[in-house]
Write a structure and sequence with these properties.
This protein is α/β, with parallel strands linked by helices. It has two domains: 5-254, Purple Acid Phosphatase, chain A, domain 2 (4-Layer Sandwich), CATH 3.60.21; 266-332. The protein has helices at residues 31-48, 69-85, 108-114, 273-285, 303-316, 339-343, 349-360, 367-388, 393-396, and strands at residues 5-10, 54-57, 89-92, 118-121, 127-129, 138-143, 163-169, 200-204, 210-213, 216-218, 235-241, 249-254, 260-262, 266-267, 293-299, 323-327. Strands 4-3-2-1-11-12 form a six-stranded mixed sheet. The chain has a six-stranded mixed sheet with strand order 5-6-7-8-10-9, with no helix packed on it. Strand 1, helix 1 and strand 2 (54-57) form a beta-alpha-beta unit. The longest helix is centred in the last third of the chain and has 22 residues, at 367-388. The radius of gyration is 22 Å and the shape is globular.
Length: 399
């Protein structure tokens, strides 16, 4: 047995993410979609430079269960580099890339054919993988999101004398502040599963890098999906495992990503639209961040003056930042943002529906009805939104 091994722990790459309806000047595709593809490519470049012994992707490879051809092509291109390098790689499915309907099929069934040397775990059962790592004395208990949706809870399983690693995708209890709504489809992990008897627990789902439980780490996302990720440091982890039972040594590798910057609120008391816009532009000039997304709250402003300021800023801000998001009057920048604030587009209907159901529990709905109502309603909304978001032929074409 080697004295120590190094594992690259990557997660939440969210390929296929779209927002803001801004186009990449080179490809004509959605710029945020391209941002996420470049983030994965940077991560693979960096992993290949670090001489790791194994790679684990802890879920949410894709942002949607039905990724476009272009998205699939990019993933195959990048992970084929890992195949050619001969690095054993295991990937589990997260909640974003697990179909709501079990019989609906999965993109992973195609990826298994395209990347035969990569181990995909994407169905509804957990697996114990040893054969992928024959020379590393490594046992991985891999739990895809689907396995967490079964009636019977998954129990931790370790092999004596091996380096034992658990990989799963979900929320560790106690991470989010009380009252914060869960993401639809999210699974809260059973604490009995997260036993410190594992040598390392590779977690996916939460985009902020952190040690969530003893020996259990979120690697964080490779790009920021929205303003809720403003304080994230995109990247991945390199984990060094010594002898079984030793504490893991975890290093987070920060990687470049599109910046997100909050500006100081502008108070428009008694100011006209042009004056308000000039106050915002004055802040933008000092940023020196033309590739950034910036956000600002305009407060205490007459509606007509606010609209005039917004119109001016829409025309003039592009000289200083890539995108400026003007928060609504009701939003408070130090609270959890809605999906409207994250993407700058329409509200996330699934999140609104989940919040509605949660607010009725215990008063209008009992727990059993609320759970069934949420699952059926979320599934219907998800199917409708996916159908609406189906890419145009030219967007999905392989270049």
């Amino acid at each position: 047995m080697s004295e120590s091994i190094r594992i690259a722990h990557i997660t939440d790459t969210h390929l296929g993410f779209r927002a803001l309806s801004k186009s990449d000047p080179e490809t004509g595709r959605n710029q945020r979609t391209v941002d996420f593809e470049k983030a994965l490519e940077r991560a693979i470049d960096d992993i290949l430079s670090h001489d790791v012994d194994a790679i684990i992707h802890a879920g949410d490879v894709f942002h949607h269960t039905r990724p476009t051809w272009q998205t699939l092509r990019h993933f195959i291109q990048q992970f084929r580099r890992l195949e050619k390098a001969g690095i054993p790689t295991l990937v589990i499915a997260g909640n974003h890339d697990t179909p709501r309907i079990r019989t609906g099929g999965s993109a992973y069934s195609v990826l298994e054919l395209a990347l035969p040397e990569i181990r995909f775990v994407a169905e509804y059962e957990d697996i114990h993988e040893v054969g992928l790592f024959p020379d590393l004395n490594l046992h991985v208990h891999a739990i895809p999101h689907g396995a967490l949706t079964n009636d019977d809870p998954v129990m931790p399983y370790l092999l004596s004398g091996k380096r034992n690693v658990l990989v799963c995708h979900g929320m560790v209890p106690g991470i989010l502040d009380p009252g914060v709504s869960a993401e639809p489809g999210e699974r809260v992990l059973n604490t009995s599963l997260l036993t410190p008897d594992f040598d390392y627990i590779a977690l996916g789902h939460y985009h902020l890098h952190m040690e969530a439980v003893t020996k259990g780490w979120y690697a964080g996302s490779t790009e920021r999906t929205g303003w809720g990720d403003r304080d994230c440091s995109p990247g991945y982890c390199i984990v060094q495992l010594d002898s079984p039972g030793d504490l893991p040594r975890v290093e987070h590798i920060d990687l470049p990503a599109r910046p997100m910057i909050d500006l100081k609120p502008v108070y428009g008391d008694g100011l006209r639209g042009r004056d308000i816009a000039d106050k915002v532009l004055q802040q933008l000039r000092t940023l020196d961040a033309p590739d950034a997304m910036a956000r600002i709250a305009i407060r205490n402003t007459d509606r007509s003056d606010r609209r005039e300021a917004e119109s001016i800023l829409k025309r003039e801000c592009s000289e200083y930042v890539w995108h400026l998001f003007i928060a609504s009057e009701r939003s408070i920048l130090d609270t959890n943002e809605t999906e409207t604030e994250r993407s700058g587009e329409f509200p996330d209907l699934r999140q609104l529906f989940a919040t509605f159901v949660e607010s009725r529990k215990g008063t209008h709905f009992n727990d059993e009805f609320a759970t069934e109502f949420l699952e059926r309603g979320d599934r219907a909304l998800s199917d409708a939104l996916l159908a609406q978001e189906a890419p145009a032929p030219e967007e999905d074409a392989v270049s």
